[in-house]
Backbone:
């Protein structure tokens, strides 16, 4: 990005005044509108030249600033998360920590203080595949036992609502198909 003329002139004057011995005690006070070495430049004309910044340069500067801000935010959130995960109060309170990390206004210290006040939860024991099958089978048996104890008959229709003779029903369906194929209307 380019430096404006006004800023360059200011920096040059600053370095010149830093390098020169301090002679402000003996010099007369400056008049408004004058600068050492001649009349002051017209601020209006300088302002107009500086406002004509190339749009491409501006867009590139904005994109670079946005990228730097995103990187800084990601680094800050990662540091915050790692601080919470490394805390002695994290173990047993993982779910609460994850919910609190979702709140951007809380610092890592705030979250660890809150976690310290929460009770630890016991981790769920992981079941093997065989244990899971046994538990599912036992749950199914319990459900069946409750249904049998209720003393009611099943409302399942074993014939699926069909007629009394399945062969007759099949013959009737077959005849209907052949009649449709030959174009015969009933």
Residues:
């Amino acid at each position: 990005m380019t430096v404006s003329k006004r800023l360059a002139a200011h920096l040059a004057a600053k370095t010149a005044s830093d390098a020169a011995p301090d002679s402000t005690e003996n010099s007369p006070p400056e008049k408004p509108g004058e600068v050492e070495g001649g009349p002051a430049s017209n601020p209006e004309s300088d302002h107009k030249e500086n406002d004509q910044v190339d749009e491409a340069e501006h867009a590139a500067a904005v994109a670079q600033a946005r990228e730097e801000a995103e990187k800084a935010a990601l680094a800050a959130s990662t540091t915050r998360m790692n601080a919470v995960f490394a805390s002695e109060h994290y173990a047993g309170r993982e779910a609460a920590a994850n919910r609190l990390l979702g709140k951007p206004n809380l610092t890592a210290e705030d979250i660890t203080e809150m976690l310290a006040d929460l009770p630890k939860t016991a981790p769920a024991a992981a079941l093997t595949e065989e244990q899971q099958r046994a538990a599912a089978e036992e749950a199914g048996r319990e459900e069946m036992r409750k249904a049998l104890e209720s003393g009611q008959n099943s409302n399942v229709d074993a014939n699926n609502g069909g007629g009394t003779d399945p062969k007759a029903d099949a013959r009737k369906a077959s005849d209907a198909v052949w009649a449709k194929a030959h174009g015969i209307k009933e």
About this structure: Residues 61-117 form one domain. DSSP finds seven helices and two strands in the chain.
